[in-house]
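Predict the 3D structure for this chain.
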Amino acid sequence: MSVSSTITTSAANTTKYLAGGSGDNIIADGYIKTVEKVWLDSYTIAFTNTLTCIQIADLPENKKITSIVVEILTTASQSSGTVSIGYVEDTTDILATTGVADFLAPFTLTHNLTRTSISLPGGLLNSVNYTGAGLTIVPMAFNGFQAVTGGTQTTIGIKLNNWTMTSGTIKTIVRYT
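Done. Predicted structure below.
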């Protein structure tokens, strides 16, 4: 009878930590044994949002983004608008129809009656109504998972294009370390 053994190995920062974190094994500040920080924000929809870029977090440099959560609560349907999430780098990026797509590329959103949740990493939870009937989960890539902020890439924004609803609230959470 053959006995198999489990191979144990370590990830990058664990290897550095076990080696004492000295010399070439320096662990970047705030990336290990740290407290996660949270930026909470909200935005009140008060007009038709065409090419609207909403700044949802302004983070310090050299911080790793661990997750972004967006909750869209409205009283109206949305069937042809797009949503994207990324860095708000400059005026060109804000005004471009494809701008702020570092984390979530422009995605056509069917927002039926009151609630949509975007959780990165994770996916999009699209609800048909507020009671939760007819939920659809759309998996999507979080291109910027553990992205490090720096230079002009420190402000996170959500971009709405061709949104026809004129009332509601967008609540956001950006976690980083």
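The mean pLDDT is 74.
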